Amino acid sequence: MASDSLRFLKENVVLEAERVHSTFSMDEPGVFHKRDDICDLQTLKEKAQIKIISEEENRLEFDLIGVDASFANALRRIIIDEIPTMAIEKVFFADNTGLMHEEMLAHRLGLVPIKADPSLFSERGPNEDATDYNTLVFTLNVKCERDPNDTSKLINEHVLSGHLVWSPQGGQEERFKDCAPEPAIKDIVITKLAENQEIELQAFCEKGIGQIHAKWSPVCTASYRLMPNIIMKEDVLGEEAVKFSNCFSPGVIEVVVVNGVKKAVVANPRNDSMSRECLRHKEFEDKVVLARKRDHFIFLVESDGRLSARRIVEDAFKVLTAKCENVKKYL
């Protein structure tokens, strides 16, 4: 019985009404006397799994199973900070009669996601000249005027990211004839103009990573949570089953009828928010254990449109592999 309890604590983070315990990893040397639980490469290969739950162009949900929190967090940080993308770095203004200052306009332009394959560009050094292999150039030339067909309306009152027009340099037109660089989102409002106000500028895009500036981060969000684990110690029957079901997120607990009696069963623990509402009711305190599986991570990655969500995750694993190879050189 003690070994079963120890195994449960080793595999789960336990949630109680007023606290969370067993939060530290037990797969470390020295946790247990005369036992070495260091995970070697072969064990990791046998345990580690990736399961894709849902996939869209800019959204990927997947399960990362059989690894430590340090591995999951390293992957998340790489996704946010170390995947190269293209972003506007320098802006040259020819004219700006609008109310927004050039510095603020340049900052807002830098945050517009630019859809271009970063693997086709090199990073521009501090003293390196701009070339067609390290820089993209966009122009923006917008003037707010009265609509000739309806004088009560203004044209170009809103300056949008879609007003940025790619200006090919050198051999770029041939290289990108099938995938012209463009803003990933066309309807981002950059600024507003009054009648007869105008903006004319050139914007230079460069390759970089989110570690340098957030504008190069390829994701809107990259998060993970531990898989909920709901263990029924006793049956919850009758009207209590309905009350018990209402303590959880929709779809987590189902009420089924067995031999004419209502019974609460765990249907989809993945959807639970772990509010612990059930533990606030005396009648349920000893009937359920709430936990999270320590080595089962539910990842959600949402791209900002520059790269597909799958591409971002694949590139993150490549970066993580390269980091491990680099460490091996010095061991």
From TrEMBL:
Its EC number(s): 2.7.7.6
GO molecular function terms attached to this record: DNA-directed RNA polymerase activity; protein dimerization activity
Specify whether Nucleotide-binding is a keyword of the entry.
Answer: no
Which keywords, in A-to-Z order, does the entry hold? DNA-directed RNA polymerase, Nucleotidyltransferase, Transcription, Transferase
> Would you tell me the Gene Ontology cellular component terms?
nuclear DNA-directed RNA polymerase complex; RNA polymerase I complex; RNA polymerase III complex
The record's InterPro entries line, in alphabetical order, gives: DNA-dir_RNA_pol_insert, DNA-dir_RNA_pol_RpoA/D/Rpb3, RBP11-like, RNAP_Rpo3/Rpb3/RPAC1, RNAPI/III_AC40, RNApol_insert_sf, Rpo3/RPB3_RNA_Pol_subunit
What residue stretches are annotated with the DNA-directed RNA polymerase RpoA/D/Rpb3-type domain? 59-330
Which EC class, in a word? transferase
Q: Which Gene3D superfamilies match?
A: DNA-directed RNA polymerase, insert domain, RNA polymerase, RBP11-like subunit
Q: What's a Pfam family this protein contains?
A: RNA_pol_L
Q: Which CDD domains match?
A: RNAP_I_II_AC40
Is Transcription a UniProt keyword of this protein? yes
Q: Which GO terms describe its biological process?
A: termination of RNA polymerase I transcription; termination of RNA polymerase III transcription; transcription elongation by RNA polymerase I; transcription initiation at RNA polymerase I promoter; transcription initiation at RNA polymerase III promoter; tRNA transcription by RNA polymerase III
Name the family the entry cites: Belongs to the archaeal Rpo3/eukaryotic RPB3 RNA polymerase subunit family.
Q: What is the name of the protein in this document? A: DNA-directed RNA polymerase, insert domain-containing protein
Supply the source organism for this entry. Answer: Rozella allomycis (strain CSF55)
